[in-house]
Amino acid sequence: MPQLYIKICGLSTPESVAAAVAAGADAVGFVFAPGSPRTVDAELAASLGQAVPADVETVGVFRNQPLAEVMDIATSAAVSTVQLHGDEPLADIRALRDAGFKTLRAFSVDAFEALPEAERLLWDAERILIDAVEPGAGVTFDATNVLAEPPAGMWLLAGGLNPGNVAGLVKTLNPSGVDVSSGVESSRGVKDNGLIADFIRAARSAE
Ligand SMILES: O=C(O)c1ccccc1NCC(=O)[C@H](O)[C@H](O)COP(=O)(O)O
């Protein structure tokens, strides 16, 4: 079975990027969606990304921004992967892949459950992330329905994960990976390097 994919999101300092890489993260996320306490600009992300080894993905997180703006920022920041966290269509994901980016499409659990069967089958071929309704808020959601009908392809679980609950949720829901932001912070938007290491250790203990 492939190793659990672990993404640490919302990084904005060289220290937290180094902590995530040293602890064995598979991906580090930079938020480009406006209005978040974690928002960084392309220049800062590009400089943070220089310390990231090639086998660790650098993920730019966007929400309902025009595709041209996403391409422009992702290119300037030199991220390997684009995560779309709004209502973006499959066509945007395909355009980004054609442009050379790896992709990750986030759905709130509500939006995922509301997808018509035919559309859900299309998304099964993509890497997707199932999140709480408000991204980056550290809130968990009722996973009963996800458990009843989990995505068939590669999918990450997010939403209120922390070092104390991640192992249990991985064992119960069996996602391909996990994504965390608030649960590894000492205060909103401020990463705690000890919690980052604790989270990755706890997640790996469930494999
Ligand atoms: O982190 C944000 O502030 C954010 C803002 C706008 C869109 C997406 C955002 N984060 C996306 C993530 O990938 C988070 O890691 C994910 O929502 C989990 O967050 P949390 O519940 O805080 O662990």
UniProtKB/TrEMBL annotation:
Transmembrane segments: none annotated. It catalyses: N-(5-phospho-beta-D-ribosyl)anthranilate = 1-(2-carboxyphenylamino)-1-deoxy-D-ribulose 5-phosphate. One of its GO terms (molecular function) is phosphoribosylanthranilate isomerase activity. Keywords: Amino-acid biosynthesis, Aromatic amino acid biosynthesis, Isomerase, Tryptophan biosynthesis. Its EC number is 5.3.1.24. Residues 6-201 form the N-(5'phosphoribosyl) anthranilate isomerase (PRAI) domain. Pathway: Amino-acid biosynthesis; L-tryptophan biosynthesis; L-tryptophan from chorismate: step 3/5. It comes from the Bacteria. Pfam families: PRAI. Belongs to the TrpF family. HAMAP family: PRAI. This is N-(5'-phosphoribosyl)anthranilate isomerase. It comes from Paeniglutamicibacter kerguelensis. The lineage of its organism: Bacteria, Bacillati, Actinomycetota, Actinomycetes, Micrococcales. The gene is trpF.
